[in-house]
Amino acid sequence: MKISAVICTRDRPDTIGQALESVCQCEYASFDVHVMDQSTNSLTREIVERLAQRYAQKCVVKYHFLEKAGLSRAYNAGVRAATAEIVACTDDDVIVPCNWLSEIARAFEADPEAGLLYGQVLIPASLIEAEKQGLIVPSLPIPQRERLYKQQFKVFGMGANMAMRKSAHARVGGFDEALGGGGPLRSSQDYDFAYRINRSGMAILLEPEIKVDHYGTRTPEQWPSTLIAYGIGDGAFYAKHIRCGDTFALYLLSKVLLRQGARHAKYMVTHRALSHDHYIESIFKGMRMASKFMVDPEFRLYRETQHAKMSVTPSNVVTGMQKNDVAARR
Questions:
Q1: pTM (2 d.p.)
Q2: Helical pair 223-243 and 279-290, crossing angle rounded to 10 deg
């Protein structure tokens, strides 16, 4: 079973090299790698091309420059570029083990109904002490294997260790490009994609044996703005499916609001500072922002309107590289 690996990146020349090298070093017979770059300079391209030459005898590494930013847009372009039915995705601040691709292949071969897979995203040993001292390292522990199928679903997943069938991606219309980092609705593209995979009748696998180490970090000062982005994306995710008459999405949203409300009440009683203060507000902000978009009822994807465009957010706009300059470097 051939596999295509996809790495989406933007302005991370300090980490993309080790991420790409770890994928190239996977002990697997047949795979290629596609780097989807949205950087504002040529540093990433130079690193990728150098490593492509180094590993040319082992696997094909292809560099793709995307003129417009957006994580969902990069995922969609990466899946379209993939030459294999199984597409494995990781991030530019992740290191994968040498059995990463073989374990992904094993899981899909064992379950023909599986359309999407998530593995564990772990805190590397070198960051454990820093994490104890307050540095935030987003992670995704999976205590046991689960198979989410038909009426079984939970909001869960992390794109740093994700794989899918290319046919499943096509079946649901791909990732929603209004959602996700760089998009107008900020985040939650993975939750939304998983929900639509589940609705399509395909299974989602949660595989604890498939592990990667995540080196991406947030400081305590950066974390509140991250939570706001999560809230906006979550609100837009729930709102879209509720607008389609999906009562289960309404149930999931109600659970989130009740849980966050109970947490807020607990902190009020104990007079402790509440770090999740803005999350609920951001959910409602995301719902308001999303209301300006149309919803394609067939694929449940947001579509542009006169008042809502798929423009990238100011913090993730690609600048500094002219179109002709990029074409000359390909």
A1: 0.91
A2: 40
- Within-domain flag for 326: no
d(CA 38, CA 58): 26
Q: Which residues, other chains included, contact 86 with Cβ-Cβ below 8 Å and sequence gap of 6+? A: 1, 2, 3, 4, 104, 105, 108, 163, 164, 165, 166
Q: What is the CATH number of the domain that holds 58?
A: 3.90.550.10
% residues pLDDT > 70 (the chain) = 92
Give the 3-state DSSP-derived string for the chain, with helices as H, strands as E and coil as C: CCEEEEEEECCCCCCHHHHHHHHHCCCCCCEEEEEEECCCCCHHHHHHHHHHHHCCCCCEEEEEECCCCCHHHHHHHHHHHCCCCEEEEEECCEECCCCHHHHHHHHHHHCCCEEEEEEEEECCHHHHHHHHCCCECCCECCCCCEEECCCCCCCCCCCCEEEEEHHHHHHCCCCCCCCCCCCCCCCCHHHHHHHHHHHCCCEEEEEEEEEEEECCCECCCCHHHHHHHHHHHHHHHHHHHHHCCCHHHHHHHHHHHHHHHHHHHHHHHHCCCCCCCCHHHHHHHHHHHHCCCEEECCCCEEECECCECCCCCHHHCCCCCCHHHHHHHC
Give the span between the Cα atoms of 154 and 211, in whole angstroms.
Answer: 20
Question: Does 102 fall in a domain?
Answer: yes
Does a structural domain hold residue 78? Answer: yes
Residue 328 domain flag? no
Asked if pLDDT for residue 324 goes beyond 80, the answer is: no
Q: What is the pLDDT of residues 132-141, one digit of tens each?
A: 999 999 999 9
Q: pLDDT for 250-273, tens place per residue?
A: 999 999 999 888 877 777 776 555
**The domain containing residue 131 runs over which residues?**
3-320
Domain count, the chain: 1
CA–CA separation, 72 and 145 (whole Å): 27
Model pLDDT, residue 150? 86
